[in-house]
Design a protein that fits this description.
Elements: E1 7-12, H1 16-27, E2 32-35, E3 52-53, H2 64-82, E4 87-88, E5 92-96, H3 102-114, E6 121-124, H4 125-131, E7 139-143, E8 147-149, H5 151-164, E9 168-170, E10 175-180, E11 186-190, E12 196-205, H6 211-216, E13 230-239, E14 248-250, E15 261-264, E16 270-273, E17 277-279, H7 290-298, E18 310-320, E19 332-334, H8 336-339, E20 344-348, H9 354-370
Parallel strand pairs: 1-2, 1-12, 2-9, 5-14, 12-20
Antiparallel strand pairs: 3-8, 4-8, 5-7, 6-7, 10-11, 11-12, 13-16, 13-17, 13-18, 15-16, 19-20
């Protein structure tokens, strides 16, 4: 570590992506501090999602989402194995419940090929039902590389790696602001019980839902380069009863999201969600009356869903860069060529597949800053 700085790098946000950025920088020999405003790591977007490991089927050719999802997924399974973090490579079926949806499966098949997703199979309805009896399927795609995992165990492992390399993950320490120093690097104001100023050579912001607010607190960051953010709320319902399928079950994607899907979680329980509702501010309430809407949707691919079997589970909010009806943009990793501040990397719009992509996002950030 340079004697001129308290840390080689400071990362804002101790969710999966922020911790993965810290891990990637630590692997390159840097001493890293990760600042988290909440009292525990991973309390935001990272703890309120589906814990799905995505294959990388859907994302536009050549996009960061396509490249980093596939690369991140491959790295993630290896990381989970090395660190004894629980996961289940259960596979996923993307299901067309009628002939009208087959063209959408065809498009996903082509995109998965473009994205170098390995192991994909096209199935007839009969073949899909042979794998998952009770499924209503006219046709399906099988993604054997998809799965579910313990996201909190994963984040604890990342924290352990950062700390083993001499870094620190500091909770209950909100980012208050930063300014570039005349000789290079940054002075970072950290709040909390003991407010302090830290100096660092490199600064990375990955705070999820507060990405825009954090960027606005960096002195000299151009306001015109802060994209408008939207809050995309999604709720989940849990099934009372035995899980009907072993694999993930996905309908074709809806506009702006992947749609309400099914998973059999690591505890063997069936969970459905999320839906998508734009809200003016983060809101984690669940309207129990939504169970009927969910049930009607679920019965398209699982007609045998019993009446009254869904219980509200939890809600999450995604940091979207697009509003209702707008095209879904790519991840945004903004470096000095964009905003003009050397040594700063600012992340916007890291929603799905951000969790799957996290290790690859960290590598991308470290490479752009150092290589």
């Amino acid at each position: 570590m340079s004697q001129d700085f308290d840390f080689d790098a400071v990362v804002v946000g101790a969710g999966a992506v922020g911790l993965a950025c810290g891990y990637a920088l630590s692997k390159r020999g840097l001493i890293v501090a990760v600042l988290e405003e909440q009292g525990h790591i991973g309390q935001g977007v990272s703890s309120r999602n589906s814990e799905v490991i995505h294959g990388g089927l859907y994302y536009a050719s050549g996009s960061l989402k396509a490249r980093l999802c596939v690369r991140g997924r491959r790295a993630l399974y290896a990381f989970l194995e090395r660190h004894n973090v629980s996961y289940k490579k259960c596979g996923k079926l993307v299901v067309a419940t009628s002939q009208d949806e087959v063209a959408r499966l065809d498009a996903i098949w082509t995109q998965a090929g473009d994205n170098d997703v390995e192991g994909m199979e096209r199935l007839t309805g009969e073949q899909a039902r042979a794998l998952e009896p009770g499924l209503n399927a006219h046709a399906a795609l099988l993604s054997p590389e998809s799965g579910v995992f313990d996201s909190h165990g994963y984040m604890l492992a990342l924290q352990g790696e950062i700390e083993a390399a001499g870094g620190a993950v500091v909770i209950a320490t909100p980012f208050e602001g930063a300014e570039a120093l005349s000789g290079g690097g940054f002075a970072v104001q950290a709040g909390g019980g003991e407010p302090t100023t830290l100096t660092c050579r490199l600064l990375v912001t990955a705070p999820g839902l507060s990405a825009q607010a954090v960027a606005a607190r960096i002195e000299g960051y151009p306001e015109s380069h802060i994209p408008k953010g939207h809050f995309g709320k999604g709720v989940y319902f849990r099934l009372n009863g035995k899980a009907p399928f072993q694999r993930l079950i996905y309908p074709p994607p809806i506009h702006g999201a992947l749609g309400t899907h099914y998973r059999n979680d690591l505890g063997g329980q069936a969970v459905f969600g999320p839906d998508l509702e734009y809200v003016p501010s983060p809101d984690y309430s669940i309207d129990p009356a939504k169970a009927e809407v969910f049930a009607a949707y679920i019965r398209k691919f699982w007609p045998a869903l019993p009446d009254g079997a869904l219980t509200p589970d939890y809600a999450g909010v995604r940091p979207k860069l697009h509003g209702a009806g707008e095209p879904q943009p790519d991840f945004q990793l903004r470096g000095a060529d964009d905003h003009g501040l050397e040594g700063l990397m600012v992340l916007f719009g890291i929603e799905s597949p951000g969790l799957t992509s996290s290790l690859a996002i960290g590598e991308e950030v470290a490479a752009r800053l150092l290589d």
